[in-house]
What does this fold into?
Amino acid sequence: MLFPVKSLLLQRTRRMLSVTPIALLFLIGVPASSQTNNYEFNDSHFHLTNNIQEGPNIHNFLNMMGTKAGRVALFGVPLQQQWSYRVDQDRAPTYYMHSDAPLYYYSFTDAAIAMGYKSLTPEQQARFDPMITGFNPADMYAVDHIRRVLQTFPGVFTGIGEFTVHKEFVAAKIPGEVASLQNPALDRILDFAAEVGLIVILHNDIDIPFASAVAKDETEPAYLNQVRALFKRHPRTTIIWAHTGLGRVVTPAVNHLALIEAILRDPDFRNVYTDLSWDEVAKYVVATPEATRQWADLIQSYPDRFLFGTDSAAPTDQSKYMKVFYQYAPLWKALDPETSRKVRLRNYERLFDEARRRVRTWESTHIQATP
Ligand SMILES: [Zn+2]
It folds into this structure.
């Protein structure tokens, strides 16, 4: 059986909640969690589309999830790669690295994700947590976009992100004001997420590209202080910091795990989680048995703070979709079974169930039902 009967009931209950007066919430109760016992993992980080808004039909993607992935945090890619004929002529770029032409915010991604979700049966919908991404984090109006998406598609979204502030090559390719961790527009977004209960997936590189080549000494990563200050300003916002700040050319400093440990240890950051996702990050975690051991030790010290995500984008078949999960196999082996279960399944359920519950409650009091 692909999906437990209990979840069907949960989904029906949730659908009722979106049209039920708040008082009734207390009569019928709020579902505690969705169980995904028989799956390999829940995926906290998945892009249904690529940089040109193409990807599998959501029904085909469900087939790729199959009996492997239980639940998936579902989003597109809000940064559209322009096809500039003057730059690339007939070579149509599909990835941000494939062209010098700029990227721009493509807000329609949220409608596309919502409509895909709405095309599913309630049982299928229960396996997805759609996320809002089509906003510019340097724009004070970004919050108004997020609110408008919730109003247009009530009962659909669980959070916002993955959205990007500092990311190698990407940030510099977006015309206009560069996104910043110190921009009040970003504070406004995270305040609104706290108010609604939206879970946040934030991509922010911890450092500049090729930092170890620039500075051989142990200078602090470029964005560490700013990102810590941002987290500290938003203690009521549940934030998943994607990839622990690492990336394709943002390599872990020798003390990277100590820097992450300092955040996880600090009670001021108890709202901060991180994901293990992206083949470009898995490569560091499984680089050597020693590296895997060090990551496993850290994760086992904070087993509730890590979530697995594929960071797959627009996969065309199950093996491509599953690639990153198998790439992390040495880590799954190194972790004790309970911690492995938390990272692969339980932490997702706990955080996304709570976000779903809170967003539905907010919608029931802030969104007018259409007559
Ligand atoms: Zn990312």
